[in-house]
Amino acid sequence: MNILVTGGAGFIGSHTVVALVEAGYQPVILDNFSNSEKSVLVGINQITGRTIPCYEGDCNEATLVRSILEKESIQGVIHFAAYKAVGESMEQPLKYYRNNLGSLLVLLEEMEKVGIHQLIFSSSCTVYGEPEHLPVTEQTPVQKAMSVYGNTKQIGEEILRDVVAAQTPFKIIALRYFNPVGAHPSALIGELPRGVPNNLIPFVTQTAAGIRKELTVFGSDYATADGSCIRDYIHVMDLAEAHVAALHKLGQLQERSFYDEVNVGTGVGNSVLEIVESFQEISKVPLPYKIGDRRSGDIPQIYADVQKSEAFLGWKASRSLKDSLQDAWRWQQKLAARS
Ligand code: NAD
Ligand code: UD1
Fold it and tell me: Is there a domain that residue 322 lies in?
């Protein structure tokens, strides 16, 4: 089965392409490399032992999308292509609305024209904002988005819900990712943050590698056990495999039209200070860090209720936090050796 993977050269997309090949699917990548490097393709091809077809182009270009859908006999689509920097989204809202929502609309329109109806959409746990109860289930109310980026995910979900409510024959699953981390265990692909990383794990590994002077723990006065924030860190290969499970599920559905949202996390929350400690234990490298102020926009804690992903997708995360940190560290060392 041929699957179009938009944003397939990115962090989560590249690992998903590998998982798709392992599961017997034939992925086709469409990426404009606005936030990825072509070297990723070499890594993917080395891991899979195949040459994965890749189109360099923009998902907002209807003619291109249409021609790939037809030429490659695509049967399903996984839509990763989007911008994801929260801070930048507040400074350049139109850029984010145009790319994240424009690409989704083009994709849906072109899929409809050629009669392809199976879609998996990358959503985020950011839709829950600061939840009242933990863990968050899919019924936890969605709150007003705290960023333009977050809003593109909420509006994206609404668009999909409306399309399916209109009885079109689309079958769509939106996966709400928690915090994806780690890398492929081969260290042939991984995360490639541009400039100073915003996210915790790449900042940790870059600090351990001596690229950054020290990590700042954003806040130690939250109402959590050790005062630092809690997140649900999921290994990117587990997340990749959740897409395979979702595709499989889409193929089994009897309904003519279908839309639903599913959390993709581990169900376990870890604090920033626990991450610092685990990382030092695993890497045997001391991690210079200081406690700093809270980061604006951060919520104290969130982690997933995973009952729906287990029951509906038949999937659950199998890798540990230790695996994630080990693989992220191996990838960082590989990157250092490269440069
Ligand atoms: P990423 O930036 O590594 O990957 C996105 C890829 O899409 C990049 O390769 C980029 O070049 C490409 N792209 C962007 N706009 C495009 C366009 N118009 N046409 C073609 N290609 C385009 O990001 P990621 O971390 O792999 O995230 C993938 C998806 O998951 C995104 O939709 C993101 O919002 C969502 N998500 C990510 C996280 C996370 O923590 N990484 C969490 C929740 C949701
Ligand atoms: C952030 C985004 C979120 C996005 C996600 C994945 C914000 C407010 N949220 O989530 O919308 O979906 O990334 O890209 O930007 N931390 C430190 N020091 C650091 C970096 C992070 O202490 O140098 C802490 C943060 O306060 C947080 C945790 O580590 O508690 C995880 O941070 P991060 O990796 O940025 O993810 P989120 O904030 O969960």
Answer: no
